[in-house]
Design a protein that fits this description.
Chain A is of the alpha/beta class. Chain A is 42% helix and 20% strand. Chain B has a domain at 61-255.
Chain lengths: 338, 338
């Protein structure tokens, strides 16, 4: 038995040695290569980002490759970056698994003349963060959808968020409160902000309690995918409930509830294809030296003009565009995407 | 002497009832509801809120009965949240892929997955002689990891679930929600099982004094495995209840549910040392937890304080319970002139 186990172990070792051997350098000479590194290999959202990245590279006449760790591990991403640099890629777009740990590998890559940008989630050392949605842009579309769903006469609305400590949700809510001070939104009244902790049970409770506490509630805004789903389900399961649900949601999850005559007339989220697409154009723009100092703007090869903003962790950032609206017309298509 | 004993016994009937753990818990519950009713401006005691509560917390109540059995034999199972997720997720996946085509089959399969999970834990605890908290701590990660693995970290959206499955959780029978009917039926089964079956008495025997139980011919390993198996099956049942209720299967669902369930048992007078506890007490404990969780946001407590307050109320309820119990135990000893 012991011999068998030992034999097996040796076999496994031998196989894994072969598997780990560096891949052959498959660059063809004339063509530059850009690489995209995702958070992990199995995420459907990330897969859409990759497809956008590859499309853009094709349009630019650049070879595109994807290399992602099995799990969301920063260590594996460091190994991958080092491998890519050794392979001689010209640019790397990475969705970072850690805000600081990748810095060393990225600095080493930049010294080799590789352009490194971050997308989806930022990290130190990156030359540019391709931001899927600016805080202000998200807050603006959320307030506008609440205003639209409450109607011209305005009314009461509430916010059902994720946890009370979630950084991005809190930033959006603070920006929404700022926007609501505008006299344009004077007839909208934010009655309460509650937190469902991104749990179905807690979110359901919070939504039901909002309805109990505020009988005149007209709209609930949920800037979180778990919250919007729970809120929409509660409203759909309650007879004669006219409350509308607005917010950020996953199309595949929300398919049953999005539509003109449904609980949620429309909702927003970013388009991962656009994010990946934009990242490829940004690598090209950086490589071509088009990107100027903060506050200046430039036109990338996709003919869109971007403003160079101060980065939070990366050196600079640009914002891909306003969040993408999912309506009754496109929800069925997008539900198959992510 | 005889006279004294007689009067004691006469007053004893009523006194026994008043002094029992259940009645002290009932008192705590009434107090709690009174305070909530007052603080929520009379909004808590309404048919809507109560039916929401029974529907939303049915699965935690069901889990509490399983935990009762495990605690009675002096064990503990902190993997039930993960077992719930694994069984609920695998059932939903098979429903999505069209393998499971009827709601009854879905519930059956979910229970089966839970049962297998429970048997594995039972075997590790009894045959492997691993202490339960460590065994279930480990299995918790394994089951949760398996949930992510089988689902490929994706969610199962509501439009991929059977309509009958989703409708079951929203349906009523005689004005009581279907999910709460499961609680009622399971409660009656537990009551009979623990009080009037020999296996039920064996469970108490193993938890009270394992050595004595062994000498009296009880197969302790067998009792342990069966108890963990039942607990697993109940967690599987809860997995189906959860996914049909919220019409979504997410990898991280019911994360930390075991803590509320253990708290419900402790409030209900179950001893963590084993051998002490009743189905009625656990039902009351689970309802108390449900009341606390449901009402915290209804009475308008700041989100940051909700967790702390929940913990405070649980500690207070247990404290009152213990004091009342200690007094009645002392009185009982006096009655026997010990």
């Amino acid at each position: 038995m012991k011999k068998l186990i030992a034999l097996l172990l040796v076999l496994v070792m031998a196989v894994s040695l072969v598997a780990c051997a560096p891949a052959a350098n498959n660059n063809d000479a004339g063509k530059a290569t850009y690489a995209i590194v995702c958070k992990d290999a199995s995420n459907p959202y990330m897969a859409r980002m990759v497809s956008g990245f590859k499309d853009a590279c094709k349009a630019l006449g650049i070879e595109a490759i994807e290399k992602s760790p099995e799990t969301t591990s920063a260590d594996d991403q460091i190994t991958i970056i080092n491998e890519l640099v050794a392979q001689g890629v010209k640019g790397i777009a990475i969705a970072a698994n850690d805000a600081a740990a990748l810095k060393g590998a990225i600095e080493a890559a930049k010294q080799q003349g590789v352009v490194v940008v971050t997308l989806d989630s930022d990290t130190e050392g990156s030359q540019m963060f391709v931001n899927q949605a600016g805080v202000k842009e998200v807050a603006q579309v959320l307030v506008d959808s609440v205003a639209d769903m409450c109607g011209e006469d305005g009314g009461e609305f509430a916010i059902l968020s994720a946890s009370s400590t979630a950084t991005n949700q809190n930033a959006w809510i603070a920006a929404m409160e700022e926007i609501l001070k505008d006299s344009k939104y004077a007839n909208l009244k934010l009655v309460e902000t509650v937190y469902g902790d991104d749990e179905s049970q807690k979110s359901t409770d919070e939504m039901q309690n909002l309805m109990t506490k505020y009988p005149n509630l007209e709209c609930v805004c949920c800037p979180t995918t778990v919250g919007i789903l729970a809120a929409a389900k509660v409203v759909a399961d309650t007879a004669d409930c006219k409350i509308k649900v607005a917010g950020l949601g996953l199309p595949s999850e929300m398919k049953d509830y999005v539509g003109d005559d449904k609980v949620c007339p429309y909702m927003y989220l970013w388009n991962p294809i656009d994010v990946g697409n934009c990242a490829a154009y940004m690598i090209k723009a950086l490589a071509d030296g088009k990107v100027g100092a903060e506050g200046t703007s430039f036109t990338a090869d996709n003919t869109k003009t971007y403003e160079v903003l101060k980065g939070d962790t990366a050196a600079t950032q640009i914002i891909v565009g306003p969040p993408f609206a999912f309506t009754g017309e496109n929800i069925a298509d997008w539900a198959n995407v992510y | 002497m005889t006279v004294k004993n007689n009067t004691l016994r006469k007053g004893g009937r009523l006194g026994e009832l008043l002094r029992s753990r259940e009645s002290s818990l009932l008192l705590v519950m009434v107090l709690l509801v009174a305070v909530i009713q007052w603080r929520s401006g009379g909004k808590f005691l309404s048919s809507t809120v109560i039916s929401q509560l029974t529907q939303n917390y049915a699965y935690t109540m069901v889990l509490s009965f399983g935990m009762l059995l495990v605690l009675l034999i002096g064990g503990i199972d902190i993997s039930i949240g993960a077992t719930l997720a694994l069984s609920g997720m695998s059932t939903s996946l098979l429903m999505r892929d069209g393998v499971i085509t009827s709601p009854i089959l879905a519930f059956g399969f979910s229970i089966l997955v839970g049962l297998v999970c429970g048997i594995v834990i039972g075997a590790i605890v009894s045959k492997g002689k691993v202490i339960p908290i460590i065994a279930t701590l480990g299995m918790q990660y394994i089951y949760r990891g398996l949930t992510y693995f089988v689902s490929n970290t994706q969610w199962v959206p509501s439009d991929k679930m059977l309509d009958g499955y989703k409708a079951f959780a929203q349906g009523n029978l005689l004005g009581i929600n279907n999910l709460f009917w499961i609680v009622i039926v399971l409660f009656v089964v537990m009551l009979v099982f623990l009080k009037w079956t020999s296996f039920g008495r064996q469970i108490y025997a193993v938890g009270s004094n394992a050595d004595a139980a062994k000498i009296s011919g009880i197969n302790i390993d067998r009792v342990k495995i069966i108890v963990y198996a039942i607990n697993g099956a109940i967690a599987g049942l809860a997995g189906a209840m959860y996914t049909s209720m919220y019409a979504t299967a997410q990898g991280n669902m019911a994360n930390g549910a075991e803590m509320d369930v253990i708290a419900a048992c402790v409030i209900g007078g179950v001893s963590l040392n084993g051998g002490q506890g009743s189905a009625f007490g656990v039902l009351l404990g689970a309802i108390t937890i449900a009341i606390i969780s449901k009402s915290l946001s209804l009475v308008g407590i700041d989100a940051f304080w909700q967790q702390a307050l929940k913990g405070g109320i649980i500690a207070l309820a247990v404290l009152i319970n213990v004091i009342v119990q200690r007094n009645s135990a002392k009185k009982a000893l006096e009655g026997r002139e010990i």
